[in-house]
Amino acid sequence: MSTAVAQPNFALIKYWGKVDEDLIIPATGSLSLTLDIYPTTTTVEVIADQPFDTATLDGVSLNTTELSRIETVLEYVRAISGRIDRAVITSTNSVPTAAGLASSASGFAALAVAASSAYGLEADSTLLSRIARRGSGSACRSIFDGLVRWNAGTTDETSHAEQLEWTGDELAMIIVVVSAGRKQISSREAMRLTAETSPYYQAWVESNNQLLLQASEAVQAGDFSTLGQLTELSTMRMHASMLAADPAIRYLAGRSVDLFDQVQRLRADGLECFATADAGPNVKILCRSRDASQVATQIQNTMPDLTVMTAHSGQGARLVEQATR
Ligand code: PMV
Question: I need a surface site. Which of 46, 67, 150, 278 has the fewest CB within 10 A?
Fold first, then answer.
């Protein structure tokens, strides 16, 4: 029985669209920050003679669709480890599930680490990243600490994340919860629809590859300002590509847009921060750790009814307990 903990990551340079849906090979690379809040804790217990895998999330049994993604990860781990026994998965999430707060990233990163250990697999972090990727693309980045780049690759072996060295100021993210409800359309469906119907999709792929190169250089140079500007650019271009899908996919709510305006005003007033949003209405604001409380206070003052959380750069997925029984 093995238990692992992982935290979400939020993309600065986004992942949106796959070239291989089964293997989850993305159309472009991406770059993210792993956070120090909202951990998912997952226990995997391998049980002989059990006919199928079972899983609960926060005490509730998962339905067939939810379980099928977990099965994909478990089947992969079993194939590599040469085992056939089924498992019982118990997971607890401290982040609102499916609200664009990256619960699938922390969930599948924790599952990859716990399952590999429970099945006795000696997996290095590259393999763990590949295993996590099979559950949810962005999960491959939560294996690592801090700033992480997912190199798109072209095959199962070459598509995985790696940790980047950052010598700039310590990073923080202010998370503004516009809505904690479930999103209207899953990122998986929305990516497919964008790739199939948006006339801007190819342009998105080409420009995001460029942004990733520039962002990688900014990371290497420890250049926060450039990294922040590129973060907003990648966010806007991703949302633009899906707004042009048919039917249009619009995750941003009116309050999300107000928050982007507010962040722009804070910047104009000399407080350097940059907004981003994913497959949901919540907005995350990238800033220097030393400015985090000021940014959070300013945002909370203008929108007192919204929940504002502060996160800093955090640790990648890790094993917290391992017991043989
Ligand atoms: O891994 P998924 O299917 O949850 O997709 C995540 C996509 C975005 O969050 C919108 C962008 C990203 O790179 O995390």
Answer: 67
